[in-house]
Amino acid sequence: MTQKEPLRIGILYSETGATSTIGRSQLQGALLAIEEINEVGGVLDRELVAVQYDPASTPSRYAELAEQLIVRDRINVIFGCYMSSSRKAVIPVVEKWNKLLFYPTLYEGFEFSGNVIYTGAAPNQNSVQLADFMTSNFGSRVYLIGSDYIYPYESNRIMRELVMQHADSEILGEHYLPIDASEGDYRAIMEDIRAKEPDFIFSTIVGDSTASLYRAYADAGFNPKTMPIASLTTSEAEIAQMGHDVAQGHFTAAPYFQSIDSAENHNCLARLRKRFGDHCRPNLCWEAAYFQTHLFANAFRLAGSDNISELLPHLLGSEFEAPQGRVRVDPNNHHTWLYPRVGRANAQGGFSIVRQATRAVSPDPYLVTHSLGDWTAKLDTMEEA
Ligand code: ACM
User: N or C: which end of the chain has fewer CB within 10 A?
Assistant: First the structure.
């Protein structure tokens, strides 16, 4: 039992709307960490209490609720956001009030805010590795499909630049669909893909419409062995929506997959299932939402305050033994050292890891070095998933 006044933190993960499947898993990651922190006495004898709202996958609601958390609920630290459009909506609010946002999602990079800690992958920790893997295994004639907002535009721009490093590369199509696109909306694109025969499709589709894309692909009769979909956003959560058979054989690059074979991951998954049940679909955003809450708690224990100026010196440079491996907040750019991996969706609804870095890769959100990372550990490469 903790003795002192609880410490309240703000939580903005979407439980409804187009990205609610991944949003609910982010919420589970945060709540699991909060319970673990409270089980060992909270932070400096204070219980951690989530003040939690549902922004309904709508960027303007994220901004309104961030303001409400800060002004009405008097909260200093907010954990939240999935789509980059929601992060872009919240940043002016946390900057105006000088509060802190923890953002647990891969994104397009080319951003820095002193009021944000970025715990998802920057492009040098997922796009670079995915481009390297896909072009060396399938070829560099690529078809780009994305949802209609900033992350897909920018992530596709980066993928285009990466594949263009190959002399014979070609971008055969680039299309953006509404965030609520249904299977029928993809049909004309599938016919264009049939005509153009790319080596692979790069999908920056997010949320519920991911399942529609993969189903439209399967209905078109395409074969992932010869022309797979590669993505940074199709996780175990989206695969559960579309079905294992539809997802099987397609590729995703991420620092975390549920199939990581480490004691930290196995133990964390066991605690998650005990708390939330066997139907959970832990994924890259679940894991980042989990470990960033622990990073905060550890920094608070040292700072004795959740005021940004007192907290940041203890947060920057801090490390945590996360399910993906030991992560570290980079003191220069507020992003996180992570472990790039590429997984192929398997028949069990998870990912078989086909390649992974042997050590954490430093975040380079402005892609200054274009490092290909450390690919010395090649696991099960291209074996049957
Ligand atoms: C994203 O919008 N950062 C997935």
Answer: N
Q: For residue range 50-94, list pLDDT tens digits in order.
A: 999 999 999 999 999 999 999 999 999 999 999 999 999 999 999
Q: Quick one: 97 and 224 in the same domain?
A: no
Q: Which of 178, 205, 218, 228 is nearest to 343 (CA)?
A: 228
Cβ atoms within 10 Å of 114's Cβ, excluding its own: 12
Atom of ligand 1 nearest to the CA of 108: 3
According to the model, what pLDDT value does residue 53 have?
98
| 173 bridge partner residues | 143
CA 106–ligand 1 middle distance (angstroms): 6
Domain assignment present for residue 22? The answer is yes
Domain that holds residue 208: 124-259+340-377
Q: How many domains does the chain fold into?
A: 2
Q: What is the mean pLDDT of residues 294-307?
A: 98
Identity of the amino acid at 262: S
- From ligand 1's centre to the CA of 108, what distance in Å? 7
In this prediction, residue 382 has a pLDDT band, given cuts at 50, 70 and 90, of very low
Please tell me what DSSP assigns to residue 5: P
pLDDT value of position 171: 98
